[in-house]
Amino acid sequence: MDDTYRTLERTAEGIFRDRNSRFLAFGFPVSTSEEISSILDGIRKKYHDARHHCYAYRLGIAKDIYRMNDDGEPSGTAGKPIYGLLVSHDLTDTLVVVVRYFGGTLLGTGGLIHAYRSATENMLSQASFIDKFVEDHYRISFPYERLNAVMRILNDENVIPLHPEYAADCSMHLTIRRSLSKKVAARLSVIPELLLNPV
How far apart are CA 11 and CA 13, in angstroms? Predict the structure, then answer.
C-alpha cells in the first residue's frame, strides 16, 4: 500500500513580473479546508489592494480533494495552471495562492496562464519538500509483567511509544506507519492481557 505523500515542508514565496503586473505566489502546507479558509482570509486582508487573489489546493493522500479559483480572471487562466503544477510536482496537502497587482496592461489569456504558472514555478523552485507517512494510532494497555515482551516488539519494529505510563497496569500511545500497522498490531495482540484500541 502506498502510505507516503509529498507536501511543502514550510511556507514558500515567489514572484513574477510582466508589463508592470506583479504576481506574488505563496505556498502553504495544509491539512484541512478550515485551515485553507483561514489562510485565504489572511491573504485577502494583507493584500487587500491587489486586483486578484487566485488559488488552487489539493488535499488528502488520495489527492482527490481539490479546488481551483480564478478570482475574476478569465476562466482557466489562473487556478488551472497553478493546480497543474501541484499535479506535476505530485503535491498534496498544499495550497498555492497567487496575488496579482494589475499593471495597467492586459496580458491576454496566454499571457495570464504563463504569468500564473511562472509565479508558481518561481515559488516551487525555492520551496522545500517533505515526504510524509500516513500513520495509524493506537492506545495499548497491559500488566507490568508484560512490559518486556511489549518493548521487544516495539524495538524490533522501530516504534517509539508516546506518553508511556508504567505502573501495575501500563499504557502507551503508538503511532505506526500504516503499511506496518497491521503487522505490529498482530504481534502485540498475541501478548496475554494486552488491550489494543485504535484511536
Answer: 7
116-157 pLDDT, tens digit per residue, is 999 999 999 999 999 998 889 999 999 999 999 999 999 999
Of 186, 133, 175, nearest in space to 4 by CA: 133
The arrangement of strands across the sheet holding 65-69 comes to: 12-18, 21-29, 94-101, 52-59, 65-69
Q: Is 130 within 8 Å of 9 (Cβ atoms)?
A: yes
Cα distance between residue 48 and residue 30, in whole Å: 22
Both 139 and 120 in one domain: the answer is no
Three cell numbers, residue 98:
497567487
- Do 125 and 173 reside in the same domain of the chain? no
The answer to whether residues 116 and 32 belong to one domain is yes
C-beta atoms surrounding 63 within 10 Å = 17
Q: What range defines the domain where residue 193 resides?
A: 134-198
- Residue 147 C-alpha cell reads as 512490559
pTM here is 0.78
**How is residue 39 written as a grid cell?**
489562510
Statement to judge: residues 162 and 79 lie in one domain: no
Separation of alpha carbons 10 and 27, rounded Å: 8
